[in-house]
Amino acid sequence: AQSVTQPDIHITVSEGASLELRCNYSYGATPYLFWYVQSPGQGLQLLLKYFSGDTLVQGIKGFEAEFKRSQSSFNLRKPSVHWSDAAEYFCAVGVSGGYQKVTFGTGTKLQVIP
Amino acid sequence: DAGVIQSPRHEVTEMGQEVTLRCKPISGHNSLFWYRQTMMRGLELLIYFNNNVPIDDSGMPEDRFSAKMPNASFSTLKIQPSEPRDSAVYFCASSSSGDSTDTQYFGPGTRLTVL
Questions:
Q1: N or C end of chain B: which has fewer CB within 10 A?
Q2: A58-114 pLDDT tens trace
Q3: Which residue in chain A has the smallest CA separation from B103?
């Protein structure tokens, strides 16, 4: 069975600073990988996803993520964080083939300070 | 499009009462998911429907939980009887085909508190 680990429960960055959120997955074959964002009181919104091709994936709101098979990682990055990026971020892994049973990580809560 | 609609947004009930959560998926989507989010366990998939048929209910915690999808535009998640440990945020999500690469669109959630 697939699993995903987000080692950082909480991260604080200054507005304008760069951001990297870590995600490690476990799955025997090529995984399908997702990053979702959840603002307070809201549902999850997809930022980006990877399932094949270029390992550097661009998403919405200026986010990008890089799939590194050798490290089993799919870290999320943003070069300059805005106060509105404060939210909780979830990495998720899906199984190739079959239906979309996605396993979510425990989330990383991002705080942005002025 | 209105997105995934869930009702109610908040529900407070007493232990032992029946609770029904409702979801309207995005029009044209044929896959629907119910999730539960808690601090302790994170986001857990409870049940997945495809074309109104339950495909995987292995995440349903126990017999007190049941879910139905009578048509393509409506689903319910029922808890009977409810218990304090059922307190959580319940999300409904839909996707266009349920394929592994599809994007899931989440509703705003129902925050359930069982006293």
A1: N
A2: 999 999 999 999 999 999 999 999 999 999 999 999 876 666 678 899 999 999 999
A3: A46
From the list A43, A98, A101, the residue facing B91 with the nearest CB is A43
Residue A44's Cβ-count burial label (10 Å; 0-12, 13-18, 19+) is buried
Tokens of B31: 């896959």
User: Please, are residues B13 and B115 in contact by the beta-carbon 8 Å criterion?
Assistant: yes
Structure confidence by residue, pLDDT tens digits, A35-64: 999 998 888 999 999 988 889 999 999 999
Per DSSP, A43 falls in state -
Q: Please, which residues bridge with residue B35 across strands?
A: B45, B91
Contact predicate A15/A113, CB 8 Å: yes
Task: Count how many pairs of residues, chain A against chain B, have C-beta atoms within 8 Å.
Answer: 62
CA dihedral sign of residues A97, A99, A100, A104:
negative
| Integer CA distances (angstroms), B53 to A37, A52, A93, B50, B71, in order | 29, 29, 24, 5, 9
DSSP of A46-87: EEEEESSS-SEEE-GGG-EEEEEGGGTEEEEEESS--GGG-E
DSSP A95: -
Short-list A26, A11, A22, A27, CA closest to A66 = A22
Chain B closest CA to A31's CA: distance in Å? 10
Residues of A in contact with B107 (CB under 8 A): 43
DSSP SS3 for B84: helix
Q: Give the pairing of strands B110-114 and B10-13.
A: parallel
